[in-house]
């Protein structure tokens, strides 16, 4: 009874907040007001609070711009968590645009949807990412290209870092800062998750969205660590595969450290 009462309160608050903030965000998008960059953070903080997502930040967000965040991707929750921590926009695969509910939220946050099969459109989208980073927006890239089980980092696709290279001509110092980020789901109700319970938060592709969302509401107490690593400078003479390998190594180290409950150098 208490669980369903808590879920009902959470749904009510989320709906009320959404009815207030979403029309304002749509208006900001319509006229491209800068406020559109900052409203999602407030919304996501409220959502995380009422879902019982407790966020612990380790390290600091890179202060220099232009900035691209490269993060592991375990769940749709990553988007809520990262958006609650910083004013960001996402680089997503085109399929996300058609997802129920989340597709609309992604559009309202002005995500860039990559059409990987259509090379001509991909070029335009990469140019948009470059332009927005050059204007000070923080873009989040999930270089695995898909979600995982939350216990490890999948293979990183170096081609997805092409947006950083495309932004170089638009930057005053001809450098883009790529900061690795590890999102680690560590506890449920204060108890270490371990591999067995991590699927409560992680969302691999073979799990349906709505049952997983219902499970998150029912759980009501998940701890997540967001670790910011040392940024990599991407310049004109930078090797994209080397940057990809460095970023992947740093994400793996931070992710393993948080999941094991200790730091790994």
TrEMBL record:
<keyword id="KW-0808">Transferase</keyword>
<dbReference type="GO" id="GO:0006654">
    <property type="term" value="P:phosphatidic acid biosynthetic process"/>
</dbReference>
<keyword id="KW-0472">Membrane</keyword>
<comment type="pathway">
    <text>Lipid metabolism.</text>
</comment>
<keyword id="KW-0444">Lipid biosynthesis</keyword>
<dbReference type="Pfam" id="PF01553">
    <property type="entry name" value="Acyltransferase"/>
</dbReference>
<protein>
    <submittedName>
        <fullName>1-acyl-sn-glycerol-3-phosphate acyltransferase</fullName>
        <ecNumber>2.3.1.51</ecNumber>
    </submittedName>
</protein>
<feature type="transmembrane region" description="Helical">
    <location>
        <begin position="7"/>
        <end position="27"/>
    </location>
</feature>
<dbReference type="GO" id="GO:0003841">
    <property type="term" value="F:1-acylglycerol-3-phosphate O-acyltransferase activity"/>
</dbReference>
<keyword id="KW-0812">Transmembrane</keyword>
<keyword id="KW-0443">Lipid metabolism</keyword>
<keyword id="KW-0012">Acyltransferase</keyword>
<dbReference type="InterPro" id="IPR002123">
    <property type="entry name" value="Plipid/glycerol_acylTrfase"/>
</dbReference>
<keyword id="KW-1133">Transmembrane helix</keyword>
<feature type="domain" description="Phospholipid/glycerol acyltransferase">
    <location>
        <begin position="67"/>
        <end position="186"/>
    </location>
</feature>
